[in-house]
UniProtKB/TrEMBL annotation:
It holds the Pfam family DUF1569. It comes from the Bacteria. This is DUF1569 domain-containing protein. Gene3D superfamilies: dinb family like domain (1.20.120.450). InterPro entries: DinB/YfiT-like (IPR034660), DUF1569 (IPR011463).
Amino acid sequence: MKSIFETRHATEITDRIDRLREDSTPLWGTMQVSQMLAHCAAFHDIPLGNTFPPRGLLGRLVGRFAKPMFYNEKPLPQNMSTIPTIVIDDDRVFETEKEKLKEQITTFQVRGPDQCSHHPHPFFGKLTPEQWGKGIYKHLDHHLKQFGV
């Protein structure tokens, strides 16, 4: 499984981000491309230790059983629910969000897995840095495929 902490995988992701255009349209879902970029950046703020969303009741009850879906080889399902605090429904500036997301990917490379936050995922709970790395890659891959890149 690919990981955002592997340089070649991070490069692949940033190359795909660079292929997005401001007028890219989703193959599924309702987010605009700039909202998707902002959503991914908001998600990254959790393992980067910038935000600490609380765990919901459903996550506390079933999150640990569903956790492997975050970092296994199977693609994430289309239109799956998301963490409420990272739903982006306002207008965003495409280039600003694109650069922020690419900077975060660089930050993951510079910091490495040892500096990944120990704060639990709001649904899946405690994750190892290795699981975070795979899950971050998988989440980005999911949304880039959503926009055809």
